[in-house]
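I'd like us to work through together how a protein chain folds, taking it slowly. To get us started, please write out a protein record for me. Go ahead whenever you are ready, and we will take it from there:
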Amino acid sequence: TEEDMDASIRAILDRHIIDVQSLIYRNIAGGSLEVMPHWVRGFSGLQQPVFNTFLPRDLAGLSDDTLADTAAFFSSRNTLYGVELIEDFVPGGADYLNDCHYQSLPPELALVISGQPNEVDRNTEIMIEKVDTVPSLTAFCTLMHLVFDFPLRDMIKLYSVAHLKEDRIGLYLAFLDEQPVSAGALLRTNGAASITNLVTIDDYRGQGVATTLTYRMLADARELDCDHVMAYSTAQGFSLFHRLGFEIFSQRQWFLPPGIDYE
């Protein structure tokens, strides 16, 4: 349970959450990340609030002053942004942002698995490839574009060719009927890893594709000495991770600044 989690594991995960931000933002074409004692700020320049983030690391990081500074930083760059709140870092932060009239998105579960995953039924028809060429990177970006409905040019900027040279980032494609139908990313830092952007095309859901891909990423993480693997999940996606043996350790929620119409 959440209460029983070893403090040393929690410290590894807390550090990992920040390190992963660094890995993500520093590999975006034109991206940057500032890591301060009380907060982290990531800038991609893309017009999507979830790719320009302010993440408070503790209660001191979430105040009228830091929110005003953040608003000024992003508005001077003419960029939409979101506040990314990890419940463990800032207990009660959600109430504070609601009082400030930020718009909350549905919370996500922060999950972790340590050690071997549970044995699950896997789809043996699926072929999984690691992205290691520009054409396969383009296929990865195209899949993200199809599933998330973000502009393809944004996805290409987000998953720049720098990813092919960065050995701590593994991008994966799963093929069925000889076409890419699912994708995911495995980001590794100092003994921990995160599975991100796990997506499957609608027509191929319910065939064990995402489960099979996740199982493979977990196997790769273990081979690379990552004892703990994290993932963020929506409430709908939880059963997939739960079957594999992930447990909830915190929650994450995005908040969009007041006074902006996101239609």
